[in-house]
Design goal:
The structure is a homotetramer.
Chain A (H helix, E strand, L loop, with lengths): L5 H10 L13 E6 L4 E5 L12 H11 L5 E7 L10 H11 L7 E5 L5 E6 H4 L23
Parallel strand pairs in A: 3-4
Antiparallel strand pairs in A: 1-2, 1-3, 4-5
Chain lengths: 149, 149, 149, 149
Protein backbone atom coordinates (compact mmCIF):
# COMPACT_ATOMS: atom_id res chain seq x y z
CA UNK A 1 0.00 0.00 0.00
CA UNK A 2 2.69 2.41 1.05
CA UNK A 3 4.80 1.32 -1.91
CA UNK A 4 2.30 2.86 -4.31
CA UNK A 5 2.72 6.13 -2.49
CA UNK A 6 6.51 6.17 -2.52
CA UNK A 7 6.74 9.13 -4.92
CA UNK A 8 4.16 11.06 -2.91
CA UNK A 9 6.03 10.39 0.31
CA UNK A 10 9.32 11.51 -1.23
CA UNK A 11 7.61 14.70 -2.44
CA UNK A 12 6.25 15.49 1.03
CA UNK A 13 9.68 15.05 2.58
CA UNK A 14 11.31 17.16 -0.12
CA UNK A 15 8.74 19.96 0.25
CA UNK A 16 9.85 20.68 3.80
CA UNK A 17 13.05 22.35 2.57
CA UNK A 18 11.13 25.43 1.41
CA UNK A 19 9.20 25.95 4.66
CA UNK A 20 8.82 29.62 5.64
CA UNK A 21 8.94 29.28 9.41
CA UNK A 22 10.55 32.38 10.98
CA UNK A 23 8.25 32.23 14.00
CA UNK A 24 9.05 28.78 15.40
CA UNK A 25 11.69 27.34 13.09
CA UNK A 26 9.57 24.20 12.73
CA UNK A 27 9.18 23.20 9.09
CA UNK A 28 6.53 20.87 7.73
CA UNK A 29 6.24 19.42 4.22
CA UNK A 30 3.26 17.93 2.41
CA UNK A 31 2.21 16.64 -0.99
CA UNK A 32 -1.10 15.70 -2.56
CA UNK A 33 -1.72 13.04 -5.18
CA UNK A 34 -4.55 13.87 -7.56
CA UNK A 35 -6.95 11.30 -8.99
CA UNK A 36 -5.09 11.74 -12.29
CA UNK A 37 -1.81 10.80 -10.67
CA UNK A 38 -0.21 14.22 -10.46
CA UNK A 39 1.63 15.40 -7.36
CA UNK A 40 1.67 18.92 -5.89
CA UNK A 41 3.86 19.96 -2.99
CA UNK A 42 3.43 22.42 -0.15
CA UNK A 43 5.22 23.64 2.95
CA UNK A 44 4.09 25.61 5.96
CA UNK A 45 4.04 29.39 5.57
CA UNK A 46 4.08 31.05 8.97
CA UNK A 47 3.16 34.64 9.69
CA UNK A 48 4.03 36.97 12.53
CA UNK A 49 0.27 37.42 12.71
CA UNK A 50 -0.97 34.32 14.50
CA UNK A 51 -4.09 33.90 12.40
CA UNK A 52 -2.52 34.26 8.96
CA UNK A 53 -0.20 31.28 8.58
CA UNK A 54 -0.79 28.39 6.18
CA UNK A 55 -0.18 24.75 7.10
CA UNK A 56 1.86 22.59 4.71
CA UNK A 57 -1.18 20.45 3.87
CA UNK A 58 -3.20 23.51 2.98
CA UNK A 59 -0.33 24.94 0.97
CA UNK A 60 -0.12 21.75 -1.10
CA UNK A 61 -3.87 21.76 -1.68
CA UNK A 62 -3.88 25.42 -2.73
CA UNK A 63 -0.93 24.75 -5.03
CA UNK A 64 -2.93 21.93 -6.65
CA UNK A 65 -6.06 24.05 -7.03
CA UNK A 66 -3.98 26.86 -8.51
CA UNK A 67 -3.19 24.28 -11.20
CA UNK A 68 -6.79 23.13 -11.63
CA UNK A 69 -6.80 19.96 -9.49
CA UNK A 70 -9.52 19.55 -6.86
CA UNK A 71 -9.75 15.79 -6.34
CA UNK A 72 -7.18 14.00 -4.26
CA UNK A 73 -6.44 10.33 -3.85
CA UNK A 74 -4.00 10.87 -1.02
CA UNK A 75 -2.00 13.39 0.97
CA UNK A 76 1.32 12.73 2.68
CA UNK A 77 2.65 14.96 5.45
CA UNK A 78 6.21 15.12 6.73
CA UNK A 79 5.98 16.21 10.36
CA UNK A 80 8.89 17.47 12.44
CA UNK A 81 8.19 15.18 15.40
CA UNK A 82 9.65 11.87 16.44
CA UNK A 83 6.32 10.21 17.06
CA UNK A 84 3.05 10.06 15.29
CA UNK A 85 1.02 13.16 14.76
CA UNK A 86 -1.80 14.13 12.41
CA UNK A 87 -2.93 17.06 10.28
CA UNK A 88 -4.60 19.80 12.33
CA UNK A 89 -8.37 20.06 12.41
CA UNK A 90 -8.46 22.96 9.95
CA UNK A 91 -6.54 20.94 7.35
CA UNK A 92 -8.77 17.93 7.95
CA UNK A 93 -11.75 20.19 7.34
CA UNK A 94 -10.43 21.32 3.96
CA UNK A 95 -9.46 17.77 2.96
CA UNK A 96 -12.98 16.68 3.94
CA UNK A 97 -14.67 19.47 2.00
CA UNK A 98 -12.84 18.64 -1.20
CA UNK A 99 -13.27 14.90 -0.67
CA UNK A 100 -17.02 15.42 -0.90
CA UNK A 101 -16.77 16.56 -4.52
CA UNK A 102 -16.33 13.01 -5.76
CA UNK A 103 -16.97 11.12 -2.51
CA UNK A 104 -13.34 10.09 -2.26
CA UNK A 105 -12.00 8.81 1.04
CA UNK A 106 -8.70 10.67 0.67
CA UNK A 107 -5.86 8.66 2.20
CA UNK A 108 -3.68 10.43 4.76
CA UNK A 109 -0.10 9.30 5.25
CA UNK A 110 1.71 10.68 8.31
CA UNK A 111 5.51 10.68 8.36
CA UNK A 112 7.76 11.42 11.30
CA UNK A 113 10.96 13.47 11.22
CA UNK A 114 12.94 10.46 10.02
CA UNK A 115 10.68 9.94 7.03
CA UNK A 116 9.07 6.82 8.45
CA UNK A 117 5.38 6.22 7.84
CA UNK A 118 3.92 6.29 11.34
CA UNK A 119 0.28 6.17 10.36
CA UNK A 120 -1.76 5.53 7.27
CA UNK A 121 -5.33 6.59 7.70
CA UNK A 122 -8.05 8.47 5.81
CA UNK A 123 -10.21 11.53 6.05
CA UNK A 124 -13.32 9.51 6.85
CA UNK A 125 -11.54 7.95 9.79
CA UNK A 126 -10.13 11.24 11.11
CA UNK A 127 -13.11 13.53 10.52
CA UNK A 128 -16.21 11.38 10.16
CA UNK A 129 -19.46 13.26 9.53
CA UNK A 130 -17.59 16.48 8.81
CA UNK A 131 -19.61 19.50 7.73
CA UNK A 132 -19.21 20.09 4.01
CA UNK A 133 -20.76 21.19 0.72
CA UNK A 134 -23.69 18.75 1.14
CA UNK A 135 -24.82 20.25 4.44
CA UNK A 136 -24.45 23.76 3.10
CA UNK A 137 -26.18 22.83 -0.16
CA UNK A 138 -23.36 24.03 -2.37
CA UNK A 139 -23.10 22.35 -5.74
CA UNK A 140 -19.54 21.24 -6.28
CA UNK A 141 -20.14 18.89 -9.22
CA UNK A 142 -18.39 21.24 -11.61
CA UNK A 143 -15.15 20.43 -9.84
CA UNK A 144 -15.46 16.66 -10.32
CA UNK A 145 -12.94 16.67 -13.16
CA UNK A 146 -9.46 17.92 -12.53
CA UNK A 147 -8.51 20.52 -15.10
CA UNK A 148 -4.77 20.20 -14.80
CA UNK A 149 -2.95 18.17 -17.41
CA UNK B 1 5.71 50.33 -16.65
CA UNK B 2 2.70 48.15 -17.22
CA UNK B 3 4.29 46.81 -20.40
CA UNK B 4 6.99 45.13 -18.39
CA UNK B 5 4.28 43.37 -16.42
CA UNK B 6 2.33 42.12 -19.42
CA UNK B 7 3.18 38.46 -18.79
CA UNK B 8 2.32 38.80 -15.10
CA UNK B 9 -1.00 40.41 -15.95
CA UNK B 10 -1.83 37.68 -18.46
CA UNK B 11 -1.01 35.07 -15.80
CA UNK B 12 -3.31 36.69 -13.23
CA UNK B 13 -6.18 36.76 -15.71
CA UNK B 14 -5.55 33.16 -16.74
CA UNK B 15 -5.40 31.96 -13.13
CA UNK B 16 -9.01 32.89 -12.54
CA UNK B 17 -10.23 29.92 -14.58
CA UNK B 18 -9.29 27.49 -11.81
CA UNK B 19 -11.04 29.38 -9.00
CA UNK B 20 -12.79 27.11 -6.49
CA UNK B 21 -15.73 29.32 -5.60
CA UNK B 22 -18.80 27.17 -4.78
CA UNK B 23 -19.97 29.58 -2.08
CA UNK B 24 -20.42 32.78 -4.09
CA UNK B 25 -19.47 31.90 -7.66
CA UNK B 26 -17.10 34.86 -7.72
CA UNK B 27 -13.69 33.87 -9.06
CA UNK B 28 -10.49 35.85 -8.60
CA UNK B 29 -7.09 35.27 -10.21
CA UNK B 30 -3.63 36.43 -9.18
CA UNK B 31 0.00 36.01 -10.06
CA UNK B 32 3.27 36.98 -8.40
CA UNK B 33 6.53 37.93 -10.12
CA UNK B 34 9.61 36.92 -8.16
CA UNK B 35 12.80 38.97 -8.03
CA UNK B 36 14.33 36.31 -10.29
CA UNK B 37 11.65 36.85 -12.90
CA UNK B 38 9.56 33.74 -12.30
CA UNK B 39 5.78 33.84 -12.19
CA UNK B 40 3.46 31.81 -9.94
CA UNK B 41 -0.30 31.81 -10.25
CA UNK B 42 -3.12 31.49 -7.74
CA UNK B 43 -6.90 31.56 -7.57
CA UNK B 44 -9.33 31.94 -4.71
CA UNK B 45 -10.18 28.76 -2.82
CA UNK B 46 -13.43 29.21 -0.94
CA UNK B 47 -14.68 27.03 1.88
CA UNK B 48 -18.12 26.40 3.27
CA UNK B 49 -16.48 27.34 6.57
CA UNK B 50 -16.29 31.13 6.48
CA UNK B 51 -12.85 31.39 8.07
CA UNK B 52 -11.06 28.77 5.99
CA UNK B 53 -11.01 30.19 2.45
CA UNK B 54 -7.87 31.41 0.68
CA UNK B 55 -7.75 34.57 -1.43
CA UNK B 56 -6.22 34.40 -4.91
CA UNK B 57 -3.30 36.61 -3.87
CA UNK B 58 -2.50 34.37 -0.94
CA UNK B 59 -2.86 31.26 -3.09
CA UNK B 60 -0.31 32.65 -5.57
CA UNK B 61 2.09 33.53 -2.76
CA UNK B 62 1.77 30.09 -1.15
CA UNK B 63 2.28 28.49 -4.56
CA UNK B 64 5.49 30.51 -4.96
CA UNK B 65 6.75 29.62 -1.47
CA UNK B 66 5.96 25.95 -2.11
CA UNK B 67 8.50 26.35 -4.92
CA UNK B 68 11.07 28.18 -2.79
CA UNK B 69 10.38 31.80 -3.78
CA UNK B 70 9.82 34.36 -1.01
CA UNK B 71 10.74 37.69 -2.65
CA UNK B 72 8.31 39.37 -4.97
CA UNK B 73 8.77 42.25 -7.36
CA UNK B 74 5.09 42.53 -8.15
CA UNK B 75 1.67 40.95 -7.80
CA UNK B 76 -1.20 41.29 -10.25
CA UNK B 77 -4.81 40.56 -9.30
CA UNK B 78 -7.71 39.97 -11.65
CA UNK B 79 -10.80 41.09 -9.77
CA UNK B 80 -14.37 40.25 -10.78
CA UNK B 81 -15.64 43.82 -10.51
CA UNK B 82 -16.15 46.52 -13.10
CA UNK B 83 -14.42 49.23 -11.14
CA UNK B 84 -11.27 49.47 -9.15
CA UNK B 85 -10.76 47.39 -6.08
CA UNK B 86 -7.76 46.28 -4.05
CA UNK B 87 -6.42 43.20 -2.28
CA UNK B 88 -8.06 42.63 1.10
CA UNK B 89 -6.24 43.67 4.26
CA UNK B 90 -5.16 40.12 5.09
CA UNK B 91 -3.46 39.76 1.71
CA UNK B 92 -1.82 43.16 2.09
CA UNK B 93 -0.50 42.00 5.46
CA UNK B 94 1.15 38.92 3.95
CA UNK B 95 2.56 40.90 1.02
CA UNK B 96 3.94 43.38 3.55
CA UNK B 97 5.48 40.70 5.75
CA UNK B 98 7.34 39.11 2.88
CA UNK B 99 8.33 42.48 1.42
CA UNK B 100 10.29 43.14 4.62
CA UNK B 101 12.68 40.26 3.90
CA UNK B 102 14.55 42.30 1.30
CA UNK B 103 12.91 45.67 1.83
CA UNK B 104 11.16 45.48 -1.51
CA UNK B 105 8.24 47.79 -2.23
CA UNK B 106 6.24 45.07 -3.99
CA UNK B 107 4.19 46.55 -6.82
CA UNK B 108 0.46 45.80 -6.83
CA UNK B 109 -1.42 45.80 -10.12
CA UNK B 110 -5.21 45.74 -9.90
CA UNK B 111 -7.22 44.56 -12.89
CA UNK B 112 -10.97 44.80 -13.42
CA UNK B 113 -13.19 42.10 -14.90
CA UNK B 114 -12.32 43.24 -18.41
CA UNK B 115 -8.60 42.80 -17.81
CA UNK B 116 -7.91 46.53 -17.73
CA UNK B 117 -5.33 47.85 -15.30
CA UNK B 118 -7.37 50.10 -13.02
CA UNK B 119 -4.68 50.83 -10.50
CA UNK B 120 -0.96 50.36 -10.16
CA UNK B 121 0.21 50.89 -6.65
CA UNK B 122 2.52 49.28 -4.09
CA UNK B 123 2.47 47.67 -0.68
CA UNK B 124 4.10 50.68 0.97
CA UNK B 125 1.32 52.87 -0.36
CA UNK B 126 -1.49 50.53 0.66
CA UNK B 127 -0.21 49.35 4.04
CA UNK B 128 2.36 51.84 5.28
CA UNK B 129 3.93 51.05 8.66
CA UNK B 130 2.49 47.55 8.63
CA UNK B 131 3.44 45.23 11.47
CA UNK B 132 6.02 42.69 10.31
CA UNK B 133 9.09 40.59 11.12
CA UNK B 134 11.04 43.66 12.29
CA UNK B 135 8.52 44.56 14.99
CA UNK B 136 8.29 40.97 16.12
CA UNK B 137 12.05 40.55 16.00
CA UNK B 138 11.99 37.55 13.70
CA UNK B 139 15.05 37.03 11.60
CA UNK B 140 14.01 36.51 8.00
CA UNK B 141 17.39 37.03 6.35
CA UNK B 142 17.66 33.36 5.47
CA UNK B 143 14.83 33.92 2.99
CA UNK B 144 16.56 36.73 1.10
CA UNK B 145 17.52 34.44 -1.73
CA UNK B 146 14.81 32.68 -3.66
CA UNK B 147 15.55 28.98 -3.83
CA UNK B 148 13.49 28.19 -6.88
CA UNK B 149 15.24 27.77 -10.20
CA UNK C 1 -26.57 14.24 31.49
CA UNK C 2 -28.23 16.68 29.15
CA UNK C 3 -30.26 18.06 32.02
CA UNK C 4 -27.16 19.43 33.66
CA UNK C 5 -26.41 21.30 30.45
CA UNK C 6 -29.85 22.84 30.07
CA UNK C 7 -28.64 26.40 30.73
CA UNK C 8 -25.74 25.95 28.34
CA UNK C 9 -28.05 24.64 25.64
CA UNK C 10 -30.43 27.55 26.12
CA UNK C 11 -27.50 29.95 25.84
CA UNK C 12 -26.29 28.39 22.57
CA UNK C 13 -29.77 28.66 21.06
CA UNK C 14 -30.14 32.25 22.25
CA UNK C 15 -26.73 33.27 20.87
CA UNK C 16 -27.83 32.59 17.31
CA UNK C 17 -29.96 35.74 17.25
CA UNK C 18 -26.87 37.95 17.01
CA UNK C 19 -25.23 36.05 14.11
CA UNK C 20 -23.55 38.33 11.57
CA UNK C 21 -24.18 36.32 8.42
CA UNK C 22 -24.59 38.64 5.41
CA UNK C 23 -22.86 36.21 3.08
CA UNK C 24 -25.10 33.15 3.39
CA UNK C 25 -27.84 34.13 5.83
CA UNK C 26 -27.12 31.02 7.86
CA UNK C 27 -26.77 31.79 11.55
CA UNK C 28 -25.14 29.55 14.13
CA UNK C 29 -25.07 29.95 17.92
CA UNK C 30 -22.76 28.48 20.52
CA UNK C 31 -21.96 28.66 24.20
CA UNK C 32 -19.15 27.36 26.37
CA UNK C 33 -19.37 26.26 29.99
CA UNK C 34 -16.20 26.92 31.98
CA UNK C 35 -14.87 24.64 34.70
CA UNK C 36 -16.05 27.29 37.18
CA UNK C 37 -19.60 27.08 35.87
CA UNK C 38 -19.71 30.30 33.88
CA UNK C 39 -21.25 30.48 30.42
CA UNK C 40 -20.05 32.56 27.46
CA UNK C 41 -21.93 32.87 24.21
CA UNK C 42 -20.87 33.28 20.60
CA UNK C 43 -22.35 33.49 17.13
CA UNK C 44 -20.84 33.16 13.68
CA UNK C 45 -19.26 36.31 12.25
CA UNK C 46 -19.00 36.02 8.48
CA UNK C 47 -16.83 38.14 6.25
CA UNK C 48 -16.99 38.97 2.57
CA UNK C 49 -13.39 37.75 2.60
CA UNK C 50 -13.69 33.97 2.62
CA UNK C 51 -10.76 33.41 4.99
CA UNK C 52 -11.71 35.94 7.66
CA UNK C 53 -14.96 34.68 9.16
CA UNK C 54 -15.32 33.33 12.69
CA UNK C 55 -17.42 30.27 13.55
CA UNK C 56 -19.87 30.51 16.45
CA UNK C 57 -17.86 28.01 18.51
CA UNK C 58 -14.71 30.06 18.06
CA UNK C 59 -16.56 33.28 18.84
CA UNK C 60 -17.79 31.82 22.13
CA UNK C 61 -14.30 30.62 23.02
CA UNK C 62 -12.73 34.00 22.21
CA UNK C 63 -15.46 35.71 24.22
CA UNK C 64 -14.58 33.47 27.18
CA UNK C 65 -10.84 34.10 26.84
CA UNK C 66 -11.48 37.83 26.59
CA UNK C 67 -12.94 37.39 30.09
CA UNK C 68 -10.06 35.26 31.38
CA UNK C 69 -11.54 31.75 31.03
CA UNK C 70 -9.49 29.12 29.19
CA UNK C 71 -10.82 25.82 30.56
CA UNK C 72 -14.09 24.44 29.29
CA UNK C 73 -16.26 21.65 30.61
CA UNK C 74 -18.56 21.69 27.63
CA UNK C 75 -19.59 23.51 24.47
CA UNK C 76 -23.06 23.49 22.94
CA UNK C 77 -23.70 24.45 19.33
CA UNK C 78 -27.01 25.38 17.75
CA UNK C 79 -26.74 24.41 14.10
CA UNK C 80 -29.12 25.57 11.39
CA UNK C 81 -29.68 22.10 9.94
CA UNK C 82 -32.44 19.57 10.47
CA UNK C 83 -30.13 16.65 11.05
CA UNK C 84 -27.02 16.08 13.01
CA UNK C 85 -23.88 17.97 12.22
CA UNK C 86 -20.68 18.74 14.11
CA UNK C 87 -18.27 21.61 14.70
CA UNK C 88 -15.88 22.14 11.78
CA UNK C 89 -12.35 20.82 11.99
CA UNK C 90 -10.86 24.24 12.77
CA UNK C 91 -13.14 24.63 15.79
CA UNK C 92 -12.36 21.09 16.94
CA UNK C 93 -8.67 21.99 16.73
CA UNK C 94 -9.08 25.01 19.01
CA UNK C 95 -11.27 23.06 21.45
CA UNK C 96 -8.59 20.36 21.49
CA UNK C 97 -5.75 22.82 22.03
CA UNK C 98 -7.40 24.39 25.03
CA UNK C 99 -8.55 21.02 26.40
CA UNK C 100 -4.89 20.08 26.74
CA UNK C 101 -4.29 22.78 29.34
CA UNK C 102 -5.99 20.74 32.05
CA UNK C 103 -6.48 17.47 30.18
CA UNK C 104 -10.21 17.97 30.06
CA UNK C 105 -12.29 15.93 27.65
CA UNK C 106 -14.52 18.87 26.73
CA UNK C 107 -18.07 17.69 26.04
CA UNK C 108 -19.62 18.72 22.73
CA UNK C 109 -23.39 19.01 22.48
CA UNK C 110 -24.82 19.36 18.97
CA UNK C 111 -28.28 20.83 18.51
CA UNK C 112 -30.37 20.91 15.37
CA UNK C 113 -32.46 23.82 14.13
CA UNK C 114 -35.34 22.79 16.39
CA UNK C 115 -33.16 22.92 19.49
CA UNK C 116 -33.07 19.15 19.90
CA UNK C 117 -29.88 17.52 21.10
CA UNK C 118 -28.89 15.33 18.17
CA UNK C 119 -25.51 14.28 19.46
CA UNK C 120 -23.58 14.44 22.68
CA UNK C 121 -19.94 13.66 22.19
CA UNK C 122 -16.53 14.97 23.22
CA UNK C 123 -13.36 16.41 21.79
CA UNK C 124 -11.42 13.20 22.37
CA UNK C 125 -13.97 11.30 20.36
CA UNK C 126 -14.08 13.80 17.51
CA UNK C 127 -10.40 14.71 17.24
CA UNK C 128 -8.37 11.98 18.91
CA UNK C 129 -4.60 12.47 18.89
CA UNK C 130 -4.96 16.06 17.77
CA UNK C 131 -1.82 18.17 17.52
CA UNK C 132 -1.56 20.55 20.45
CA UNK C 133 0.64 22.36 22.98
CA UNK C 134 2.29 19.09 24.06
CA UNK C 135 3.57 18.26 20.59
CA UNK C 136 4.76 21.81 20.06
CA UNK C 137 6.31 21.94 23.53
CA UNK C 138 4.45 25.04 24.62
CA UNK C 139 3.89 25.42 28.32
CA UNK C 140 0.26 26.21 28.96
CA UNK C 141 0.18 25.50 32.69
CA UNK C 142 -0.22 29.18 33.50
CA UNK C 143 -3.70 28.97 31.97
CA UNK C 144 -4.88 26.13 34.22
CA UNK C 145 -6.83 28.48 36.43
CA UNK C 146 -9.60 30.54 34.92
CA UNK C 147 -9.15 34.18 35.83
CA UNK C 148 -12.73 35.27 35.33
CA UNK C 149 -14.93 35.65 38.35
CA UNK D 1 -10.13 64.02 21.53
CA UNK D 2 -8.22 61.38 23.41
CA UNK D 3 -9.89 62.45 26.63
CA UNK D 4 -13.23 61.25 25.38
CA UNK D 5 -11.66 57.83 24.79
CA UNK D 6 -10.08 57.51 28.22
CA UNK D 7 -12.36 54.67 29.31
CA UNK D 8 -11.81 52.85 26.03
CA UNK D 9 -8.05 53.21 26.36
CA UNK D 10 -8.13 51.91 29.92
CA UNK D 11 -10.18 48.94 28.77
CA UNK D 12 -7.71 48.08 25.99
CA UNK D 13 -4.81 48.18 28.42
CA UNK D 14 -6.70 46.08 30.96
CA UNK D 15 -7.69 43.48 28.36
CA UNK D 16 -4.08 42.51 27.79
CA UNK D 17 -3.94 40.65 31.11
CA UNK D 18 -6.04 37.79 29.74
CA UNK D 19 -3.98 37.25 26.57
CA UNK D 20 -3.56 33.60 25.63
CA UNK D 21 -0.08 33.74 24.12
CA UNK D 22 1.77 30.45 24.75
CA UNK D 23 3.52 30.62 21.37
CA UNK D 24 5.40 33.92 21.65
CA UNK D 25 4.56 35.28 25.09
CA UNK D 26 3.57 38.58 23.50
CA UNK D 27 0.22 39.78 24.76
CA UNK D 28 -1.98 42.38 23.09
CA UNK D 29 -5.15 44.03 24.41
CA UNK D 30 -7.94 45.81 22.59
CA UNK D 31 -11.34 47.35 23.18
CA UNK D 32 -14.12 48.61 20.94
CA UNK D 33 -16.52 51.44 21.64
CA UNK D 34 -19.95 50.96 20.08
CA UNK D 35 -22.07 53.76 18.66
CA UNK D 36 -24.28 53.33 21.75
CA UNK D 37 -21.35 53.93 24.04
CA UNK D 38 -20.72 50.39 25.22
CA UNK D 39 -17.25 48.92 25.48
CA UNK D 40 -16.16 45.35 24.71
CA UNK D 41 -12.70 44.00 25.37
CA UNK D 42 -10.52 41.46 23.63
CA UNK D 43 -7.04 39.93 23.85
CA UNK D 44 -4.98 37.91 21.43
CA UNK D 45 -5.64 34.18 21.37
CA UNK D 46 -2.70 32.36 19.87
CA UNK D 47 -2.72 28.82 18.55
CA UNK D 48 0.03 26.30 17.99
CA UNK D 49 -1.46 26.13 14.50
CA UNK D 50 -0.11 29.23 12.76
CA UNK D 51 -3.32 30.01 10.88
CA UNK D 52 -5.77 29.68 13.76
CA UNK D 53 -4.89 32.49 16.16
CA UNK D 54 -7.09 35.52 16.81
CA UNK D 55 -5.73 39.05 17.15
CA UNK D 56 -6.83 41.18 20.12
CA UNK D 57 -8.72 43.57 17.84
CA UNK D 58 -10.63 40.72 16.27
CA UNK D 59 -11.32 39.18 19.65
CA UNK D 60 -12.84 42.45 20.90
CA UNK D 61 -14.98 42.74 17.76
CA UNK D 62 -16.21 39.16 18.03
CA UNK D 63 -16.95 39.71 21.71
CA UNK D 64 -19.06 42.76 20.76
CA UNK D 65 -20.91 40.89 18.01
CA UNK D 66 -21.56 38.01 20.39
CA UNK D 67 -23.45 40.64 22.39
CA UNK D 68 -25.29 42.09 19.39
CA UNK D 69 -23.13 45.14 18.61
CA UNK D 70 -21.90 45.63 15.04
CA UNK D 71 -21.24 49.36 14.79
CA UNK D 72 -18.12 50.85 16.27
CA UNK D 73 -17.14 54.42 16.94
CA UNK D 74 -13.59 53.57 17.88
CA UNK D 75 -11.16 50.82 18.68
CA UNK D 76 -8.12 51.12 20.97
CA UNK D 77 -5.23 48.68 20.86
CA UNK D 78 -2.57 48.17 23.51
CA UNK D 79 0.52 46.94 21.66
CA UNK D 80 3.54 45.36 23.33
CA UNK D 81 6.07 47.53 21.52
CA UNK D 82 7.89 50.66 22.55
CA UNK D 83 7.16 52.54 19.37
CA UNK D 84 4.16 53.04 17.20
CA UNK D 85 2.58 50.13 15.45
CA UNK D 86 -0.82 49.50 13.89
CA UNK D 87 -3.45 46.77 13.66
CA UNK D 88 -2.52 44.08 11.13
CA UNK D 89 -4.10 44.11 7.69
CA UNK D 90 -6.57 41.35 8.54
CA UNK D 91 -7.92 43.34 11.49
CA UNK D 92 -8.11 46.48 9.37
CA UNK D 93 -10.13 44.48 6.84
CA UNK D 94 -12.69 43.42 9.45
CA UNK D 95 -12.90 46.93 10.91
CA UNK D 96 -13.45 48.23 7.39
CA UNK D 97 -16.13 45.68 6.57
CA UNK D 98 -18.16 46.52 9.63
CA UNK D 99 -17.58 50.26 9.20
CA UNK D 100 -19.44 50.02 5.90
CA UNK D 101 -22.68 49.05 7.64
CA UNK D 102 -23.32 52.62 8.74
CA UNK D 103 -20.54 54.37 6.84
CA UNK D 104 -18.68 55.11 10.03
CA UNK D 105 -15.03 56.13 9.88
CA UNK D 106 -14.09 54.04 12.92
CA UNK D 107 -11.33 55.75 14.92
CA UNK D 108 -8.22 53.70 15.67
CA UNK D 109 -6.16 54.52 18.74
CA UNK D 110 -2.75 52.87 18.98
CA UNK D 111 -1.06 52.56 22.36
CA UNK D 112 2.50 51.51 23.11
CA UNK D 113 3.62 49.24 25.92
CA UNK D 114 3.64 52.14 28.36
CA UNK D 115 0.01 52.97 27.64
CA UNK D 116 0.85 56.15 25.73
CA UNK D 117 -1.24 57.04 22.69
CA UNK D 118 1.27 56.93 19.87
CA UNK D 119 -1.16 57.37 17.02
CA UNK D 120 -4.77 58.32 16.56
CA UNK D 121 -6.00 57.51 13.11
CA UNK D 122 -9.02 55.93 11.39
CA UNK D 123 -9.97 53.02 9.20
CA UNK D 124 -10.42 55.25 6.13
CA UNK D 125 -6.90 56.51 6.55
CA UNK D 126 -5.36 53.08 7.09
CA UNK D 127 -7.34 51.07 4.56
CA UNK D 128 -8.84 53.45 2.03
CA UNK D 129 -10.95 51.85 -0.71
CA UNK D 130 -11.02 48.54 1.13
CA UNK D 131 -13.09 45.74 -0.36
CA UNK D 132 -16.31 45.31 1.59
CA UNK D 133 -20.02 44.48 1.55
CA UNK D 134 -20.71 47.10 -1.14
CA UNK D 135 -18.34 45.53 -3.66
CA UNK D 136 -19.64 42.08 -2.91
CA UNK D 137 -23.26 43.30 -3.01
CA UNK D 138 -24.14 42.00 0.42
CA UNK D 139 -26.93 43.80 2.20
CA UNK D 140 -25.81 44.67 5.70
CA UNK D 141 -28.54 47.19 6.53
CA UNK D 142 -30.12 44.82 9.04
CA UNK D 143 -27.05 45.33 11.21
CA UNK D 144 -27.33 49.13 11.34
CA UNK D 145 -28.82 49.06 14.81
CA UNK D 146 -26.84 47.53 17.62
CA UNK D 147 -28.95 44.99 19.47
CA UNK D 148 -27.05 45.00 22.73
CA UNK D 149 -28.41 46.98 25.61
Amino acid sequence: MIKKYSKLIAAAIDAKKFAYDPVTGIGVGAAVLTTEGNIYKGCNVQSVISGLGTCAERCAIDNAIAHGAYNFQAIAVSFPSRNSTRPCGACLQIIHELSEIKDIDTQIICLNKFGDVVEETSIRKLLPKGYGPKESKKDVKQYRINKDK
